[in-house]
Design a protein that fits this description.
- The complex is a heterodimer of chains A (307) and B (154).
- Chain A is an alpha/beta fold and 307 residues long.
- Helix content of chain A is 31%, strand content 28%.
- Chain A has a six-stranded mixed beta sheet, with helices on both faces. In chain A, strands 11-12-10-13 form a four-stranded antiparallel beta sheet. Chain A has a three-stranded antiparallel beta sheet with strand order 2-1-4, with helices on one face.
- Classes of the chains: A alpha/beta (307), B mainly alpha (154).
- At the A-B interface, helix 6, helix 7 and helix 8 of A face helix 2, helix 3 and helix 6 of B.
Chain lengths: 307, 154
């Protein structure tokens, strides 16, 4: 089962396309990280997935249900918008009461146990909690809906390192215990490597690359060798990023197969997640052609002009 | 926040700067603990949930590591209980180890005579090691190759 499946999905605001030609599948049971610079279409994609905004073109299915935003689709989703959305003037107990009554399904006992675990006083106003506590409260209320898909828009942005770790531990534990799938947008690339097993990179309103994190890392590498031989070598490769100096060249390439031979005089180095994402975001000509499926990642022609 | 409940004799730790994929770090730490005697057949590995909570990593990463250990025949899962060490790592018999050590010392002496310093020897060794196991169709343990698993399957 795929938790999210989109075909040619696009959203236009006035004359501007916030997202276009987005064909994407995210399998169940993953923590998928949605990354890209501000304005690349992350929130647009998330808002369409939870039915807060209507696609201009294309289609999307969430948890196998179309249309998104229908009651059947929403029952399986919990969404935490940016900046830990809690009502600042309500107490923790009132937030709990409110959320329980606004939701068809709500595991009150689990939410209360979790709030006790976190040491959040029920009488305290949500606005008086620390940033980390507010985010944990929002997450607790979201998880109490017993979702199959948890969508988090930039949950880590305003948190300190300890609060980030605590927040992610809660998310990971929910994955382990209840099999919740997660879609999370973040700018904290360095922190994603350990937590995200699926990666979706958006650049300028287009899908740049998507796939299993391990597969993406395994199918890309940096080739280092003499600059004078780089042009002829690069022609036979699918180069995402090309860095050159007088004598030396570094080519970040998508391998065409695991058994790819490296030419004599060249060294192959593995790439990290951050390096890979930044290379795709900086790829010339905007976003490359969308990767139709993780298995085909190696056939992307990333330098192809977007339009 | 100590998660250790004494279920397993070992506790995982991650090295963020190693460049080795997370699941492979877990695999290597179990193998290392086996070699050093921290783990013996019958011992239990940390529960997936505890590893997830103590390292803040994706549960699928832990499952992948445990599956790899099982494929290697080092561990076995017991339904509802956890993952247990099944076999000790095969060690080369001591007399052969001595011979290997001597030939390596000879080689080091000639590398030194040729002017290679310690880090040069290390770089050469790592590169030859990687190439050797690549040619044999399996990734070297500790290989820098992120594609360790795919190459192993191919």
């Amino acid at each position: 089962m795929n938790v999210i499946e989109t075909t040619g999905l696009g959203k236009r605001y006035g004359k501007e396309w916030a997202l276009r030609d987005c064909t994407l599948t995210i399998p169940e049971g993953r923590l998928a990280a949605l990354v890209g610079p501000n304005g690349s279409g992350k929130s647009t994609l998330m808002n369409m997935a939870v039915g807060l905004s209507v696609p201009t073109e294309g289609s999307a299915a969430v948890l196998g249900v179309k249309p998104v935003g229908s009651r059947a689709a929403l029952d399986g989703i919990a969404f935490v918008a940016q900046d830990s959305p809690v009502y600042r003037n309500l107490s923790v107990g009132d937030m709990l009461h409110l959320t329980r009554n606004l939701n068809r399904r709500f595991d009150d006992a689990a939410a209360r146990a979790r709030i006790a675990d976190l040491g959040l006083p029920l009488k305290k106003k949500a606005g008086k909690l620390s940033g980390g506590q507010q985010s944990q409260l929002a997450l607790t209320l979201a998880l109490a809906r017993r979702p199959r898909l948890l969508i988090l828009d930039e949950p880590l942005a305003s948190l300190d390192p300890l609060a980030r770790q605590d927040f992610m531990t809660t998310v990971m534990t929910a994955m382990t215990d209840d099999g919740v799938s997660v879609l999370l947008s973040s700018h904290a690339l360095a922190e994603l490597e350990r937590v995200a097993d699926y990666l979706v990179v958006l650049s300028r309103g287009k899908l740049a690359v998507a796939g299993e994190t391990d597969d993406l890392l395994a199918s890309h590498r940096v080739l280092t060798g003499p600059a004078e031989a780089a042009d002829s070598y690069a022609q036979r490769l699918s180069v995402i990023q090309d860095k050159r100096a007088g004598a030396q060249a570094h080519l970040l390439v998508a391998a065409s197969g695991p058994a790819d031979r490296v030419e004599p005089g060249w060294e192959a180095h593995p790439v990290g997640l951050e390096e890979l994402v930044l290379a795709y975001l900086r790829a010339p000509g905007g976003a490359p052609a969308a990767a139709p499926s993780p298995a085909l990642v190696s056939h992307i022609q990333p330098t192809e002009a977007a339009r | 926040m100590t998660i250790d409940k004494g279920i397993s004799p070992i506790e995982f730790r991650l090295d963020p700067s190693s460049g080795v994929p997370t699941y492979l770090q877990l695999v290597q730490q179990v193998e290392h603990a086996l070699r050093l005697g921290y783990l013996k057949p019958g011992d239990q590995l940390p529960k997936v949930r505890d590893v997830v909570a103590s390292l803040t990593i994706n549960p699928n990463t832990v499952l992948k590591a445990y599956k790899e250990l099982e494929t290697k025949g080092l561990t076995a899962g017991r339904p509802g209980q956890g993952t247990f060490i099944q076999a000790a790592l095969t060690q080369v018999a001591l007399p052969e180890l001595g011979g290997l050590r001597r030939s390596m010392l000879d080689w080091l002496a000639s590398a030194d005579a040729a002017g290679l310093d310690e880090s040069g020897v290390g770089a050469l060794f790592t590169s030859v090691l990687r190439d050797f196991y690549k040619d044999h169709g399996r990734a070297a343990d500790g290989g820098a190759a992120a594609g360790g698993e795919t190459e192993g399957v191919a």
